[in-house]
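Trying the structure run again after the queue cleared.
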Amino acid sequence: MPDTVRRLIVIVLFEGVDLLDVTGPPEVFSLALRETEEAAGYRVLLAAETLDPVTTGAGVRILPDITFAQAAAGTIDTLLVPGAVELDEERRAHPLVDPELVEWVRVLAERTHRITSVCVGAHLLAAAGLLDGKRATTHWSTAQQLAADHPAVRVDADPIFIREGNVWTGAGISACLDLSLALIADDLGEAVALRVARQLVMYLKRPSGQSQFSVPLEQVSTTRRIEDLRHHILRHIDQPLTVVDLAAYAHVSDRHLTRLFKTELGTTPHAYIESVRVEKARHELESSDNTLERVATLCGFGTTDTLVRAFRRRLNTTPTEYRRRFRVPQVP
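Done. Tokens:
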């Protein structure tokens, strides 16, 4: 394998791999080549254990360009490790972590300048010991399992991607586009990355601190009482919502209400209410011209200072910056 390519990107292939994890990044890097008239120097190769076709989780077959052994014989600029999941009898997703594949990832990482994972590919990096002592993210549905299986990894399930030195980890499948844009920005600057984002018809390049969570996507609780409370909170989000108020509504004690939230939703009532308020504020900032004062009132924050603090805490940005980046143009 030639190692004269300035930015050689090797994407790991294996049976059942998520298709978009594999095909999304090459599209992004190819647009960078077009935007810079090939000055980017990118070359993408797909590597697998053999050169036999690999069947993805979507059923689409892909042909590898090189074997893992061939990839390990040269120098790699960026190693991209996608993921795959299997479902158990209760339709819960579990990442596929093959020991032989993990060993190849470890070997290839030794020849690599920059190591990245997409979605549940973080589980493969963790199994290879490449995330020990590092902060990392993965798809929100497997984040708890990543933390349980690898205590040495500081799992943060919120951001869409995280950079720790030369190791980058990405969240959900579509976040492979955001991660790829961030890699381009790291190599060629923000201006090129933004031009590529426009070519992708993405409204903008999302920053790493952008949350992958949306409150409606959070796990639904198993008890009717908590579900009623969740709907009650949504209906009254512009009003003061205290633990005392919620406990009275649910006809339980304050302490029992806190236990219910912790058991069913893995959080406290205060933290959950704030997450709902931030979610509503995001929608207002994306789709309306309301002032920050009005947004704060509509979402129950009371003051703009409280709104700003919540955004910094939850999304690592400010409401003004969020609106600048994510405001959806209104069609006349």
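The CA atoms of residues 75 and 111 lie 5 Å apart. Worth checking whether this holds up in the mutant runs.
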